[in-house]
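Continuing the series of single-chain predictions for the mutant panel. This is the parent chain; the variants come on the following pages.
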Amino acid sequence: MNTISSFLGFPDTLPHIKPVAAVFGAAYGSTYPGKDSSGYALAADSVRAASREDAGLIDHWDFDLGGPLFDEGAHCCIDLGNVSTQMGDNAGNRASIEATTREVLATGAVPILLGGDDSVVIPFLSGFSNREPIWIVQIDAHIDWRDTLHGERYGYSSPMRRASEMAHVAGMVQVGMRGIGSARRVEVEDALRFGSRLVTARQVHSEGAAAALRHIPEGARVVMTVDCDGLDPGIMPGVAAPSPGGLTYPQVIDIIAGVGTRGRIVGFDLVELFPPADVAGLSALTASRLVANAIGTIIRQR
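Parent structure:
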């Protein structure tokens, strides 16, 4: 693995402490033929770079979390760097991401994946097989239920369709849908037939995080997947498919915190940050703060 820096200055090992969470990046999952996905290769390290200004402050009070990031004072997270992936090596990329996810889970740590486009989510979720069932909470402007696109079944338009086919996925709550072009009628019908709970951005704006949280069973083991275009482009401009009316930063961190209270976050990924479209580093900064909130929530679950 390789990286130019680590998230919040985390070490790559903790010799005498069992890590609570392990961060790793993956540039490519299953890319589409003829599509240039190279911009996504910058995403993970952009998030890491944006976290640098906070690296010396993690012992300070965090008003999002109601206390310092490491609430008990012990730094207990690691950054493993980036999985080696190559654009076009779809099967190899999926195998590497899934294997890394399994390796992290075997240590007892919560895996945190920095993507990459949304296709990296499929092997990430596959890595949770042969364990207790999971629920998925997805933040996204789109439902991602395409079966095949450009001849590829594992691309960025298909992660929730592929997740629905995984025996260890007990259910899913999809949050933030809005606008036109998010799905075809048959894809919405298939998602509802599976039992997915679709929560629109308008519902969250009207009812708050409760619009999503009420669908999560008490005590559920949850993998959260946050697509950056689920947030409003006013605060997250650095995406390939911006859509107005998205979720706000407070709404997303309320959902993260609520999942950690109602259930238990056992995995987290952040995907679809597209640095070439970012404005003054705003998207990368917002993304890094979302990941920090997820880590703080995971620590407080113990």
